[in-house]
Design brief:
- The protein is mainly alpha-helical.
- The longest helix has about 40 residues.
- Strands 1-2 form a two-stranded antiparallel ribbon.
Amino acid sequence: MKQHSLSQIERIQGWLFCLPWIIGFLLFTVGPMVYSLFLSFTDYDMFNKAQWIGLANYQKIFSRDILVPVGVRTTVLFTLFSVPLNLIGGLALGLLLNHKIKGISTFRTVFYIPAVVPYVACLLMWQLVYNQNFGLLNAILAKFGVTGPNWLGDPKWALSSLVIISFWGVGRDMLIYLGGLQGIPTEYYEAADIDGASRWRKIMNITLPLLLPIIAYTSILGIITSLQAYNTAYILTAGGPANSTYFYMLHVFFKAFEDYQMGYSSALSWLLFIVTLGLTFLAFALFRRKSNEA
């Protein structure tokens, strides 16, 4: 009886310690999400009372808003290029820096620093790098007799420029892969060396299969992040030129805080949430299947 009472007291204490987080989660996460779901079925401009209009906002998304397909196309293209680039780059850096040589800690720190520098400051730096007249990139190209384009002002180059910027924070993925690589038992590689396996065979048959859960994690996180891409385009291009960098989330922002269509913006947000959730479950299923095959 005494032991049972002690267990019950510990359970109550545990819930009490969790209570501040639970209250914060309900007030600042669940609450706003439920309210935004309600707003998605209303006509609301922040100044007047919300008017219930049913599915009209969702009908507008699929039938009358010509900028939605533009935002979807731009976001999909950005995701298709930025996610593999960061995945391959992070893994390559992790493999490169997973060696016990003199000064390796310095190199790891150097590659990771960009991931912790304030992102807005990084974007302002990239704005200078991409400047058509005095930017560092065009200055380097001029040394080889090449006239650099207007990177952020030309529709042909603007989206590609933002994809390159997304690679700036690859040090974060590198650190995750490095932790996974150092967790692989060295006995596997020693056995492979005895069998005469090449470095490539060891990567394909030992490293990648054992890193599959980490690859799944970084890939899913990368997809979620790229689908919500917004601040890079907002600061550098404002969606231009000619809507070439007009991301879906940029459309959500403009509808909410420039056109004051909060109800319609909430509908756009919930559509993105459903798509992101579906892609996340699909990615989990694919990686789970691959993991079982391995």
